[in-house]
Design goal:
Blueprint (H helix, E strand, L loop, with lengths): L1 H36 L4 E2 L5 E3 L5 E4 L6 H39 L3 H16 L7 H19 L10 H12 L6 H5 L3 E8 L2 E6 L2 E4 L6 H12 L12 E5 L5 E5 L9 E5 L8 H7 L4 H13 L13 H10 L7 E5 L11 E5 L13 H8 L8
Parallel strand pairs: 10-11
Antiparallel strand pairs: 1-2, 2-3, 4-5, 4-9, 5-6, 7-8, 8-9
Helix pairs in contact: 3-4, 3-5, 4-5, 8-9
Length: 379
């Protein structure tokens, strides 16, 4: 009987507390409405209500805060029972947030396969930048082994093994997220204004891609691109022109000279014409114009090719070089190797930047002078 009496007494106290909390909540809402009407409301620092003259959070606004914040503020109105409820819910919210953070930090299946491919590359002593075929074999073997293990249920299967192989080759042997644009024959140029703003050019039109990088990824890409060029980029040399192994031209402006981030341009070497007749077929030249230019080259006349960016100067020089008779010797001088034409007697030279000591620089003027000593018929 005594236990029943205590239980009934506690029930009455709980009901009284609930009624009191309800009245306090209604009063707080009325006060917040009056404060808002008089323009004297201040946003609660927790983002869940308004602050009155006595500094308490009085009423929830249409602004929706985090659930944990709402629970913490209701503790003011709910008493000891609300405290226990709030603590339990906040604890569960914290646990869920921690589990999400932990799952986001876990490496993906592709990251694990990437590590396996890199282990194979190191074990076999392969240079990934010059032997992409070997890297592809390693990637295929790693993906195939992963598929076999997925049959036992120990790992999750890969939806598209072929795409996974291509992605692994791009990561290890290529240039990561940019490799798909380098492999795309319709892309003429790639440039990075900011890590999250990567552009490409197709048929002379600029396109903002969906590729999003970060500053560390851009720095890693530049370092990998310069690895085989023998050129460097630092504070003392904030500009660099280099040639990629595939023949594409790289230009980088270091952060500090360019605002905010390093600016990267990759101009692809896209062969559209090898001879003057190809320019006629493309509609760039008329047939009489091509015949006139070829006659000028055969006669040994001096020719100047000028134009704006992407006007086709290099393509024109390549077609003119193909028109040079085979019995003559050609010496070409360039900042970066770009000319490519078939000729039996041709020597190509390019400039060189200064070393770390500030010495060893070779400029175009020096190359022209040296070419005169190489018995050239054409420079």
């Amino acid at each position: 009987m005594a236990g029943d009496a205590r239980f009934a007494e506690e029930a009455r106290h709980d009901e009284a507390d609930r009624q009191s909390n309800r009245r306090d909540h209604d009063k707080a809402g009325d006060h917040a409405g009056r404060a808002s009407a008089h323009g004297s409301d201040r946003r609660c620092p927790f983002g869940v209500g308004f602050m009155s003259g006595f500094g308490g959070c009085e009423a929830l606004t249409p602004h929706r805060p985090l659930r944990s914040q709402v629970i913490q503020k209701f503790v003011v109105w709910a008493g000891p029972v609300g405290n226990r409820l709030a603590n339990s819910r906040v604890s569960r919210t914290h646990e869920v947030g921690m589990s999400r953070t932990h799952s986001a930090a876990l490496p993906s299946a592709l990251d694990l396969l990437d590590a396996d491919v890199r282990d194979e590359v190191r074990r076999n002593g392969v240079d990934p930048l010059t032997d992409a075929a070997a890297v592809r074999r390693f990637a295929q073997a790693v993906v195939r082994d992963h598929d076999q293990r997925s049959l036992t249920g120990s790992v999750r299967p890969i939806d598209d093994p072929d795409s996974a192989v291509d992605e692994l080759v791009a990561r290890v042997s290529g240039f990561g997220p940019l490799q798909k644009y380098l492999d795309d024959p319709t892309v003429e140029e790639i440039w990075i204004n900011e890590p999250d703003r990567v552009f490409v050019a197709r048929d002379g039109r600029h396109e903002l891609t969906t590729t999003i990088l970060n500053a560390a990824e851009v720095a890693d890409l530049v370092e990998r691109m310069l690895k085989t060029s023998g050129r460097r980029l630092d504070v003392s040399t904030p500009f660099v022109d280099a040639l990629l192994p595939s023949g594409h031209r790289l230009h980088v402006v270091l952060d500090g000279v360019s605002r905010g981030f390093s600016a990267v341009n990759v101009r692809k070497f896209v062969v559209k014409a090898n001879r003057l007749a190809d320019l006629v077929a493309l509609g760039t030249l008329t047939r009489p114009s091509a015949a006139f230019l070829e006659a000028c080259v055969v006669a040994g006349l001096n020719l100047v090719v000028a134009g704006g960016t992407q006007a086709g100067k290099t393509t024109m020089l390549n077609t003119l070089g193909s028109a040079v008779p085979g019995g003559e010797r050609i010496v070409s001088v360039e900042e970066v190797y770009e000319l490519r034409f078939k000729h039996p007697d041709w020597v190509a030279m390019q400039t060189r930047q200064a070393g770390l000591e500030g010495t060893g620089e070779i400029k175009l003027r020096r190359l022209v002078k040296e070419s005169l000593r190489m018995r050239p018929s054409r420079i």
